[in-house]
Amino acid sequence: MTFDRETIVLVCVLGYMCMCLAIGIWAMRRTHSTSDFFMAGRHLGIIVTGVAVFSSMMSGFGFIGGPGLVYRMGMSSVWIVVAAPIGYCFSFFLLGKRLRLMAELCDSISLPDVVAARYNSEVCRLLTALAILLGVMGYLGAQILAMATVLRNVLSNHEAIGPVSLEMCMAVSCVVLVFYCVTGGIIASVYTDVIQGLVMVVAAVLVFGAAVKSYAGGVGGVVEVIHADNAEAILPWGTLGMVGCLSWFFLFALGAVGQPHIVTKFMMNRRITDARYILAFAVIGYLLSALLWIGIGLVMRAHVLAGSHTALVDSDQAAPQFLQTFAHPVLAGLVFAGLFSAIMSTADAFLNIGAAAVVHDIPRSLRGRPLVRELLWARVATGVLAVVASVFALYSGDLVALLGAFGWGTFAAALVPTVAIGFNWKRATAPAAITAILSSLLINFVVKVGNYSLPHGLQVGALSLLVSLLLFFGISLCSRPPQLDPDIEAVMDF
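-> structure tokens emitted (494 positions)
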């Protein structure tokens, strides 16, 4: 690898990061209230919202974790790619308009605000905020770990810098991220999403082509060498097996409706009627970007098996190593730069909803009123959450994608019944929502902390989502019908 190649990649990354920091400073001048910090003032247009929705899912989870999973498990994680667009459709159908109407009706600045209004319950607000806060730790940790992984790869491959530790890269990533998030809030996130989303769609298509061309036999050669090593890896279920793949499909298709960093963006767009167009942007953008997920993972596995690249010690190195070794340096620099932007904007979204839970929702549920100087405390909470999530990611021992899947499962099991079903079914009750959230958190964290393995590759998020749904429906049907606020009922009839 030449010095010029390394320098090109490093300059692209540093230039793009400086641009993102500049966006943060610009956004700070437009952030004057907690509504601006958490909800972007509800003035986002179709393109901004659409790109922000699909970018929120791809980010470090898709561009680092995705290829890592394909390299490690073969075709298993492709079921996530297939499920995600279906999840977008579920999300827009169930919540695209209704959540925006409820947010405007309640003048809310967070998802727990709307949940509290729907169930007329401060306990529901508190538990929703806690579920969001706990889920943020896993998913935000995945973003920061992905950012540190890429930064270490870029710096260590530069002759003038040499090897650097993951801990050092985590610290640098955390400092840059906190500055970006504290200054601009959600406004910085969504506008960075527009730039990086468009960049990543183009780059993903180019990288997919580069990945196929980098292997002498093309797609056929990749399939042949992987099949010869492990036939299961290239078959539809991959090495995870049928139960594991279907549980991922269930979790990511239905679970998308419970992802607060995605559905809260429905509360920010300017017009309710924009939802149908936002969906089209989100689905098309995601499918094109996912080419990078699949292409790099399979090709890097083929290169390692064929002996044209050394074996990877860490599966999360699949994408960085491919870009550093096989892609054109300008394209590699562009992808790395866009990836940093994607991670920062998505991490900003998680820090945003986590900070809202800490300084807005939990105090309101316990004290009946928000904190004084809420915007100041939101910025303080943002820094604290970033540090805690970094430590969690660094010492959890999980891959980026598995951390992301844990966060996704925590959100899905707690919020799909409470929000997706509860906002569309008048019979849903507050006790059912409370039980669903508590059961989901209990199952997810007992399995995670206890380091238990479920049989046949079953994903814990899928299990907890299934249990919470059954409890939600069962308790609602066994309880007395709730008395809804007339305005809430009118929105649900819309």
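The chain has one domain: 3-397.
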